[in-house]
Design brief:
The chain is built from 13 helices and eleven strands. It has 323 residues and is α/β, with parallel strands linked by helices. The protein folds into two domains: 165 residues, Bordetella uptake gene, domain 1 (D-Maltodextrin-Binding Protein, domain 2); 125 residues, D-Maltodextrin-Binding Protein, domain 2, CATH 3.40.190. Strands 5, 6, 7, 8, 9 and 10 form a six-stranded mixed β-sheet that branches. The protein has a five-stranded mixed β-sheet with strand order 2-1-3-11-4. The longest helix has 22 residues. It is globular, with a radius of gyration of 21 Å.
C-alpha cells in the first residue's frame, strides 16, 4: 500500500514538473479592475502585448470594474494559484486601500506573489476648457471661495486619482467634491464634456486630450516639468513645495503560484523592456522608466510593503479613512 502511494506521489509530482516545464501552454489572464479606455487599461494592454510576444502565449486583459479595484483584488487573491491568473495591481488598491478601508478582504503584502513592476506614470491636473480658473492656483483659490462647488472626477474610491486629488485639496486647504467613476476613462469623458470641473489623470491617457485642446492642463505631479508639457508647471513650483507623486503598477499572482510561472512572466517582461523602440514609446508618454532591479518581483514586494506603511501615515494625517 505504501509503495503504491509512493509511486502515485512520484507520478503526480512528475506530472506537475512536466506541466510547469512547458509553462505557459494556454492563454494567461491579467485582471484590470477598471473599465476599458483608462490609463491602467491602456498601460496594461501595452505591456501585456510585448510580454506575450516574449512568452509565446496570449495574455488576455480582462476588465472588471468596481469598488476602486478592491473587489477584483479580493477575487484574484482567492483564485487558483496555477500561474494563469494575475492581477494588474497599482498604488490605489495595493498601497492605499489598507489605509482607506477598515475592512479589506485581502492583504496586498501577504496574499500575493509580486511578479514585476511597471514603469511609473506621473499625473496631470486637468480642468474643463470653460472653467473660470486659468491656472492651478486659481482653481484651488476658487475652491476655497466656493466650498464643495468644484467637482473632481476620479477612477474610483481609493484610486490614485482620488487619493492624490484629496491629498492636494487637503494640503491646499480647499473643499472639493470627489466624484468616483468605474475607471479614469469615464471620468475623463465627463471633463471633456464639461459635466465635471476636472481630474488628475495619468500622462499616457491625458496627453491626447491636452494635445487636441479638449481640456486645459493646469499642473503636473512630477517633481520637475515634463518635456512634453514644458509650459505646464508642477504642483511643486506652484502651490505645494516639495510635492511629487506618480502612479505605480505591478503584476501580482495569487499566493502559492508556481515559481516557474512567476519567473517566466517576469523574465519575459524584462526582455521586452530591452527593446529600445518600445522604451522610447513609453518615454514619449512621460512614463518613467526604472532601473532593471526595481522591476523585479522581489523589489515590487518590498515596494508594496513600504507603500502600505506610507499611505497609512498619509491617510491618518489627512483624515482620508473610510468605512
Amino acid at each position: 500500500m505504501f509503495k503504491k502511494l509512493s509511486a502515485l506521489l512520484v507520478a503526480l509530482l512528475s506530472s506537475v514538473a512536466v506541466a510547469q516545464s512547458d509553462y505557459p501552454n494556454r492563454p494567461i489572464a491579467w485582471v484590470v479592475p477598471f473599465a476599458a479606455g483608462g490609463p491602467t487599461d491602456a498601460l496594461a494592454r501595452s505591456i501585456a502585448d510585448v510580454t506575450s510576444k516574449q512568452l509565446g502565449q496570449y495574455i488576455i486583459v480582462e476588465n472588471t470594474p468596481g469598488a476602486g479595484g478592491t473587489i477584483e483584488a479580493t477575487k484574484v487573491a482567492r483564485a487558483t494559484p496555477d500561474g494563469y491568473t494575475f492581477l494588474v495591481g497599482y498604488m490605489g488598491y495595493m498601497g492605499a486601500a489598507p489605509a482607506l478601508y477598515k475592512k479589506l478582504e485581502y492583504n496586498p503584502v501577504t496574499d500575493f506573489e509580486a511578479t514585476f513592476r511597471f514603469p511609473d506614470t506621473p499625473l496631470v491636473l486637468m480642468a474643463r476648457n470653460d472653467h473660470p480658473a486659468k491656472n492651478v492656483k486659481e482653481l484651488y483659490d476658487y475652491a476655497k471661495k466656493n466650498p464643495d462647488q468644484v467637482f473632481m472626477g476620479n477612477a474610483g474610491l481609493g484610486s490614485s486619482s482620488h487619493f492624490i486629488a484629496a491629498l492636494v485639496a487637503n494640503a491646499a486647504g480647499a473643499d472639493v467634491k470627489h466624484v468616483p467613476y468605474k475607471g479614469a476613462g469615464l471620468a475623463l469623458i465627463d471633463v471633456v464634456g464639461g459635466q465635471i470641473d476636472g481630474m488628475y489623470d495619468q500622462t499616457n491617457t491625458a496627453f491626447p486630450q491636452i494635445t487636441e485642446k479638449r481640456v486645459r492642463a493646469l499642473a503636473v505631479t512630477s517633481k520637475t516639468r515634463l518635456p512634453q508639457l514644458k509650459d505646464v508647471p508642477t504642483l511643486n513650483e506652484t502651490i505645494l513645495s516639495g510635492f511629487e507623486a506618480s502612479t505605480w503598477y505591478g503584476i501580482y499572482a495569487p499566493k502559492g503560484a508556481p515559481k516557474v510561472a512567476i519567473e517566466k512572466v517576469q523574465n519575459a517582461f524584462l526582455q521586452a523592456m530591452k527593446d529600445k523602440a518600445y522604451a522610447d514609446k513609453l518615454q514619449s508618454q512621460a512614463i518613467q522608466l526604472l532601473p532593471e532591479q526595481q522591476y523585479l518581483g522581489s523589489s515590487l514586494a518590498k515596494h508594496t510593503e513600504a507603500e502600505v506603511v506610507r499611505w497609512r501615515a498619509v491617510a491618518a494625517k489627512s483624515n482620508l479613512a473610510m468605512d
